[in-house]
Design a protein that fits this description.
The protein is of the alpha/beta class. The chain folds into two domains: about 10-75; about 115-260, Dna Topoisomerase Vi A Subunit, Chain: A, domain 2 (3-Layer(aba) Sandwich). Helices cover about 50% and strands about 10% of the residues. It contains eleven helices and six strands. It has helices at about 10-30, 35-45, 55-70, 95-105, 125-135, 150-160, 175-195, 205-215, 225-235, 245-260, 265-285; strands at about 115-120, 140-145, 165-170, 200-205, 220, 235-240. The strands form two sheets. A four-stranded parallel sheet has the order 2-1-3-4, with helices on both faces. Strand 1 (about 115-120), helix 5 and strand 2 form a beta-alpha-beta unit. Helix 1 (about 10-30) crosses helix 3 (about 55-70), helix 4 runs antiparallel to helix 11 and helix 6 (about 150-160) crosses helix 7 (about 175-195). The two termini are about 35 Å apart.
Amino acid sequence: MKERFITKNFHDSSLAIIDDANDIIAEYQAQGFSLTLRQLFYQFVARDLIPNTTRSYDRLGTIINDGRMAGLIDWLSIEDRTRERKRNSHWDNPKGVIESARDSYGIDMWSNQPYRVEVWIEKEALVGVIEHTCRALDVPFFACRGYVSQSEQWRAGVEFRNPDQHIVILHLGDHDPSGIDMTRDNFARLRMFSDDNVTVERIALNMDQIKKYNPPPNPAKVTDSRYETYLLAYGPESWELDALEPKTLTDLIIEKVINHRDDILYEERERQLANDMTKLDKIITNLKT
């Protein structure tokens, strides 16, 4: 949805950036994704359209903002995934809430599995990328926001004390001194709190993926207390998870989750869910508005 609120004369260079932004946005929308400004920035950098600098990022943000205000860029194409207005749900009649409940009905698809999988991702801004995929797989997902608080680690660990299922955490984070260490930290504390009933598997961002996808590098933070260890292992450059294509992330999650899933047992739960949905449909059919 494009809507104009200002009239602005853009320089040719700014118009070129707006055109490139709309091309990138269209590619993402065709795949069912919207973008954050940072993701859009990394697409510009990866395509050698602008340099990977703070000044370039700030300039891009200004041009995108002006382009939206001038009606040249779709307002729905750029998301702020860290801020959202909240509101109560409403229905037109009692039958409507029953129909809504039907759409949200689900059973635990992993209750009969030997493993239970969760996806933990470093940045809340990327939850919008992985949420649909995780929900479709019936896999819990969690934005760590950096290092996870002791309270949340303990709560998760207590929940993971299940002798009938081993917990697998798929962790995604930046490839930088702290981002690498967060995987170690998650495993150490979850292992302690869960009575050693958890495995943490770092699925991104890893060096093999950096070599394959060639995301734009940033200088690793020399002020990070883990910098020297990181420097010896990986060198002075770091990479952000945001730089990977959303489809790359979602395809990776699907692959790793399915690796830990017994499909025969999963199909049993799918049949149960289908039977339950049929029962709900019969109930709704007999309701009056």
